[in-house]
Amino acid sequence: MTHKTSWIITPNRRRAAFLLQQYDKMQQQSGHLLWERQNILPLEAWIDQLWLHHGEPGVPLLKAAEPEVLCYHRLAPHQPDMSPVSAQHIMSAYERLLGWHIPLDALDTYADHAEVVYLQQALQQWQLAQRTYPGVTLYEAIQRLISVFTQHKPTDTVQAIGFEQAAPLVQQLLACFPQTSTCIIPSPTTGATAHKRAAFPDELAEWGAMAEWVLQRNQAHPHAQIACIFPHLDMVRPALTRFLKQTWRNVPWAMSGGTPLTEMGAIQTLLTVLAPTPIEWPHYRTALLHPSLHHHPEDRHLIGVVDEVLTSQRLFHPSRKQLLAIMHQHSTHFPHSQLAQRLHAYGQLPRQMTTATAWIAYLQSAITCLGWMRAPALNSEEYQLLEAFTEVLTQHRRLDEFTDALSYRAQWRAFQQALQKRVFQPNEPDNTPIFVLGALEAQGITFDYLWIAGLTDQRWPPKPHPHPLLPLALQRDHHLPHATLARQFAYAEQLQQDWEKSAHLEMIASYTTWEGETPLRPSALLTYPDITVPSPAPVTPQPALETWISEMPVPVPPHHTQTGGVSLLKEHAACPFRAFVLHRLKTRRAETETPGLTARERGQVTHHLLERLWQHWKTQDTVLHLTAAERQADIEAAVIAVCEPLRRVPHLAAFWQLEQERLIPLITHWIEKECQRPPFRVVATEQTLTCQVGPLSLNIRLDRIDEINPDTYLVIDYKTSATLSTQDWQGPRLREPQLPLYAASKPHIAGIAYAALHPNQSQYRGLLAAENLLFSNMKHLPKEQSWNTQLTEWKQDLTALATDLMAGNTQVDPRDPAVCMRCELHAVCRKSG
């Protein structure tokens, strides 16, 4: 750089784009028709420019996912347990050591830590590989640039926005440059005159009030800039997106953060087809059905026929040859489908390549053969997605500069890592007035109105999450990010002060007082005066694409046996359409494979364990007469017995010991609770019974029935959730109808209860017929309401539900907005926004 340049530097790409947009708008409002483009860059792009002009010749700067990709491929031969995730942890640990001026030999003090030894060995291999294939990471480049600028003072000027929490190494580089005294876009210096806090009973009420508040200010001030900040945006993004799409239908808005390219449907489709190993047919079928690959309705019909053939032959991992043979056999019935021909042409491409350049050529040929993302049919968002994909593809070519020959499998994995690193977000229109942002993205930007949501003491400041490969003591001593509660508190305090400056006219910070039955408090940092913001009535989404709606009932045919058990009534109470889709159409969501035991399997193991114990003990008196050692021996023997089958299942064998370690303290604590109850005798465990409710006969399975007095019984349902409420049994559309159904159908039932088994929160929650039966957290009915009256109400409510179900009510009629928020049937529900 031979001439003086003024730079404005931001920590991330989004903030740079936002400042450019704000600057352009300011020029337009000033009446200018032409103006000079400003040098506003995110940090990585600026370092790239500096390295291009001041870096070491012949030494490239590693960009985006390249450090993680190279780390994996360089270290995998020396580290048998190396994975892409391990490589990511290694490089992020290396970045923190460099960024906070921690020499690598500082790790020697912690040589007795296995993770430190692993990290040291990995970094040694990394540095050895760099001698053969030179290339520097971002922080290595910053170190070398600081050395250059220490000897030769730069003449460029810099204004850094939002670097208060940046690594000391980054701040040292910024300090090498003269700081501008004025800025084309002034940083916020004075915040809103009104900082208020608002409390809401739950998250939906908070979101509803926020959405209405935004709409009111947008209608009153159409040109005002409004932001809603969610420090926990990544946790709530899917549900929040659905909610805001329903609420803000008629105003433009944008949500920050974006999505990794690997989570975009079109990219997932291409990666699935290109995968180096056979893919299960259900996943391959999903890829073939994606709009980026199927171009004619007959494509879908052909895939349906192939699906039937493969299912009938029980071919769940068909080879490419088998798949093409079946397609060609049946493609004559679908003359307009070119899918078989396209897959055949793709299959003829040779996969023998050893360089990134050759792999890119192969990939481009594969895209042409498959007809993936045909350009003439692309909308604006799809075109932007294709551009982002092309950027990553072009970047992939640089692997040839840093690596030896890579196999097809290695090339595919490297490309997948690069796509995972690239976050995609469609460009929002220039006139977007409303923004939904994460915690860091509003820093240094001015808004007219600002709402910050979710500031409970459980979420703000964020909980510490230290780096897994660095010793905690070292992280604490050097004040590394996210390592300690004190560090997180200082981080949150600084961010909150920046938000206060960012709000020009008004700022509201909100929190919820309850999560289920768990009370919450405002964050300790939320010291503003209280304000009451009314929550609007829940928004009922309107059909967006329907042209014809039929509300005709679909009665259950006479003499038809309706399966589904009590869950049938439960789903019908939640939403009749949901019950119809799940139980009468037999629709099932594809289960996601998870390592180890699923939550359902863990619940089943817990049920079997308690069943075994009470079949052995039978009464509370038996337990009370056991010594502590005898009781513990019975529990441990039962745990070993129910966990033993796990050892014989190959993919679960490694988890049986972990499951034993989880169950023994959980059940020990629970049995202590049982011993504090009034005397009881267990008369049934895991019993299947038939109950008649109106025109519907249902099979229900009861976890346990206790005799608490002569001919007086308590029905118990085991639960592993900590958020349970007796309100589940109230109202005409019961949330949990199983226990009320049994109590209303059988004589001598004097109470129903949840047995909530949860670490450190195990307790009973339920209803009893009389005050003299009370124990633990159980409740009895108000004096003005008798137990018989309650049983009659339950019977009437359940009979009405059963009659409505058998009459064929299939309307989309959710009991409350939460049903829609948690529903997985949005693809088939006409009221999904």
Structural description of this entry:
- This protein has 28 helices and 19 strands.
- It is an alpha/beta fold.
- The protein has four domains: 6-175, no CATH class; 195-258 and 428-519, Rossmann fold (3-Layer(aba) Sandwich); 261-424; 659-806, no CATH class.
- The strands form five sheets. The protein has a six-stranded parallel β-sheet with strand order 4-11-10-5-9-6. A six-stranded mixed β-sheet has the order 14-15-16-17-18-19. The chain has a three-stranded parallel β-sheet with strand order 2-1-3.
- Helix 11 packs antiparallel against helix 12.
- The model is unreliable at 539-549 (pLDDT under 50).
Secondary-structure map:
Layout: E1 6-10, H1 13-29, E2 40-42, H2 43-54, H3 66-75, H4 84-99, H5 114-132, H6 138-151, E3 157-160, H7 168-175, E4 195-200, H8 203-220, E5 226-229, H9 233-247, E6 253-255, E7 259-260, H10 265-274, H11 281-289, H12 297-312, H13 320-330, H14 339-347, H15 356-370, H16 380-396, H17 408-421, E8 423-424, E9 434-437, E10 447-452, H18 472-477, H19 485-502, E11 503-512, E12 514-515, E13 518-519, H20 566-574, H21 576-584, H22 599-617, H23 620-624, H24 628-643, H25 656-675, E14 681-693, E15 696-709, E16 712-719, H26 738-745, E17 749-756, E18 763-768, E19 779-780, H27 787-806, H28 817-822
Instruction: State the total count of DSSP E strands.
Output: 19
Strand order in the sheet with the most strands: 4-11-10-5-9-6
Our count of helices gives 28
When the domains are counted, the total is 4
Strand content range: 5-15%
Shape: globular
Q: How large, in whole angstroms, is the Cα Rg?
A: 31 Å
Q: Helical content, roughly?
A: 40-55%
Major sheet size, sense and barrel closure = 6 strands, parallel
Overall average pLDDT:
83
How widely separated are the two ends? 52 Å
Poorly predicted tracts of residues: 539-549
Structural class: alpha/beta
